[in-house]
Design brief:
Distance between the termini: 16 Å
Strand order of the largest sheet: 1-2-3
Number of helices: 5
CATH architecture: Alpha-Beta Complex
Number of domains: 1
Number of strands: 3
Helix content: 25-40%
Length: about 140
Protein backbone atom coordinates (compact mmCIF):
# COMPACT_ATOMS: atom_id res chain seq x y z
CA UNK A 1 0.00 0.00 0.00
CA UNK A 2 1.53 3.28 -1.11
CA UNK A 3 0.71 6.58 0.57
CA UNK A 4 1.28 10.02 -0.93
CA UNK A 5 3.87 12.36 0.59
CA UNK A 6 1.02 14.50 1.95
CA UNK A 7 -0.59 11.54 3.72
CA UNK A 8 2.77 10.62 5.25
CA UNK A 9 3.36 14.23 6.31
CA UNK A 10 -0.05 14.55 7.99
CA UNK A 11 0.43 11.16 9.65
CA UNK A 12 3.93 11.84 10.99
CA UNK A 13 3.29 15.55 11.71
CA UNK A 14 -0.47 15.82 12.32
CA UNK A 15 -1.90 19.32 12.62
CA UNK A 16 -4.45 20.37 15.25
CA UNK A 17 -4.13 17.39 17.58
CA UNK A 18 -5.81 17.82 20.95
CA UNK A 19 -9.00 19.00 22.56
CA UNK A 20 -10.78 22.32 22.83
CA UNK A 21 -12.08 22.39 26.43
CA UNK A 22 -14.81 24.98 25.70
CA UNK A 23 -15.66 23.68 22.22
CA UNK A 24 -18.81 24.94 20.53
CA UNK A 25 -19.29 21.60 18.80
CA UNK A 26 -17.92 18.11 19.41
CA UNK A 27 -18.40 15.10 17.18
CA UNK A 28 -17.27 11.54 17.72
CA UNK A 29 -17.50 8.94 14.99
CA UNK A 30 -16.00 5.54 14.60
CA UNK A 31 -16.24 2.15 13.10
CA UNK A 32 -15.78 -0.73 15.53
CA UNK A 33 -14.99 -3.10 12.63
CA UNK A 34 -11.75 -1.33 11.74
CA UNK A 35 -11.08 0.33 15.10
CA UNK A 36 -10.82 3.90 13.81
CA UNK A 37 -12.37 6.44 16.18
CA UNK A 38 -12.27 10.20 15.59
CA UNK A 39 -13.30 12.99 17.90
CA UNK A 40 -13.48 16.47 16.35
CA UNK A 41 -13.68 19.69 18.40
CA UNK A 42 -14.78 23.02 16.91
CA UNK A 43 -14.55 26.60 18.17
CA UNK A 44 -16.92 28.86 16.26
CA UNK A 45 -17.09 32.65 16.57
CA UNK A 46 -19.55 34.75 14.57
CA UNK A 47 -20.24 31.84 12.23
CA UNK A 48 -16.54 31.19 11.49
CA UNK A 49 -14.66 28.02 12.48
CA UNK A 50 -11.83 29.73 14.37
CA UNK A 51 -10.27 26.51 15.66
CA UNK A 52 -10.58 22.81 15.00
CA UNK A 53 -8.80 20.01 16.82
CA UNK A 54 -9.02 16.24 16.81
CA UNK A 55 -8.13 13.10 18.68
CA UNK A 56 -8.02 9.99 16.54
CA UNK A 57 -7.39 6.42 17.50
CA UNK A 58 -6.65 4.51 14.35
CA UNK A 59 -4.36 3.88 11.44
CA UNK A 60 -2.10 6.36 9.70
CA UNK A 61 -4.75 7.18 7.11
CA UNK A 62 -7.30 7.94 9.85
CA UNK A 63 -4.87 10.34 11.52
CA UNK A 64 -3.93 11.97 8.20
CA UNK A 65 -7.58 12.47 7.15
CA UNK A 66 -8.47 13.96 10.55
CA UNK A 67 -5.50 16.32 10.32
CA UNK A 68 -6.36 17.42 6.79
CA UNK A 69 -10.08 17.80 7.54
CA UNK A 70 -9.36 20.19 10.42
CA UNK A 71 -6.94 22.15 8.23
CA UNK A 72 -9.54 22.47 5.46
CA UNK A 73 -12.26 23.93 7.71
CA UNK A 74 -10.25 26.28 9.94
CA UNK A 75 -11.03 29.90 9.14
CA UNK A 76 -14.04 28.96 7.03
CA UNK A 77 -17.65 29.97 7.61
CA UNK A 78 -19.83 27.23 9.10
CA UNK A 79 -21.83 27.21 5.85
CA UNK A 80 -18.66 26.22 3.97
CA UNK A 81 -17.34 23.79 6.62
CA UNK A 82 -20.62 21.86 6.33
CA UNK A 83 -19.84 21.18 2.68
CA UNK A 84 -16.55 19.41 3.43
CA UNK A 85 -16.65 16.11 1.58
CA UNK A 86 -14.56 12.99 1.92
CA UNK A 87 -13.60 13.54 -1.73
CA UNK A 88 -12.14 16.98 -0.88
CA UNK A 89 -10.12 15.42 1.96
CA UNK A 90 -8.77 12.70 -0.35
CA UNK A 91 -7.90 15.24 -3.05
CA UNK A 92 -6.12 17.50 -0.54
CA UNK A 93 -4.03 14.50 0.54
CA UNK A 94 -3.18 13.62 -3.09
CA UNK A 95 -5.17 10.40 -2.84
CA UNK A 96 -5.64 7.41 -0.57
CA UNK A 97 -5.47 3.67 -1.29
CA UNK A 98 -8.95 2.29 -1.99
CA UNK A 99 -8.97 0.21 1.21
CA UNK A 100 -8.40 3.42 3.22
CA UNK A 101 -11.09 5.60 1.63
CA UNK A 102 -13.37 4.86 4.60
CA UNK A 103 -11.04 7.01 6.72
CA UNK A 104 -11.95 10.06 4.63
CA UNK A 105 -15.65 9.22 5.11
CA UNK A 106 -15.09 9.15 8.88
CA UNK A 107 -13.35 12.56 8.70
CA UNK A 108 -16.32 14.06 6.82
CA UNK A 109 -18.76 12.48 9.25
CA UNK A 110 -16.72 13.70 12.25
CA UNK A 111 -16.84 17.30 11.06
CA UNK A 112 -20.55 17.08 10.27
CA UNK A 113 -21.30 15.46 13.64
CA UNK A 114 -19.42 18.27 15.43
CA UNK A 115 -21.37 20.84 13.40
CA UNK A 116 -24.63 19.09 14.24
CA UNK A 117 -23.67 19.36 17.92
CA UNK A 118 -22.97 23.08 17.39
CA UNK A 119 -26.40 23.62 15.81
CA UNK A 120 -28.12 21.55 18.52
CA UNK A 121 -26.47 23.56 21.32
CA UNK A 122 -27.76 26.74 19.66
CA UNK A 123 -31.28 25.33 19.37
CA UNK A 124 -31.07 25.50 15.58
CA UNK A 125 -31.60 22.96 12.84
CA UNK A 126 -28.70 21.98 10.62
CA UNK A 127 -29.57 21.97 6.91
CA UNK A 128 -30.78 18.46 6.16
CA UNK A 129 -28.49 17.86 3.17
CA UNK A 130 -25.45 18.25 5.46
CA UNK A 131 -26.62 16.05 8.33
CA UNK A 132 -24.19 13.23 9.16
CA UNK A 133 -25.12 10.06 7.32
CA UNK A 134 -23.48 7.61 9.71
CA UNK A 135 -23.13 5.19 6.86
CA UNK A 136 -21.72 1.80 7.58
CA UNK A 137 -18.50 1.47 5.70
CA UNK A 138 -18.16 -1.63 3.55
CA UNK A 139 -14.40 -1.00 3.20
CA UNK A 140 -14.10 -2.03 6.85
CA UNK A 141 -15.45 -5.51 6.08
CA UNK A 142 -11.94 -6.68 5.15
CA UNK A 143 -11.00 -10.03 6.64
Amino acid sequence: MLYSDKVMDHFTHPRNVGEIPDADGVGEVGNPKCGDIMKIYLKIDDGIVTDAKFNTFGCGAAIATSSMATELIKGKPVSEAMKLSNKAVVEALDGLPAVKLHCSVLAEEGVRTALLDYYTRRGEKMPEEYLPRHEDCSACDIG
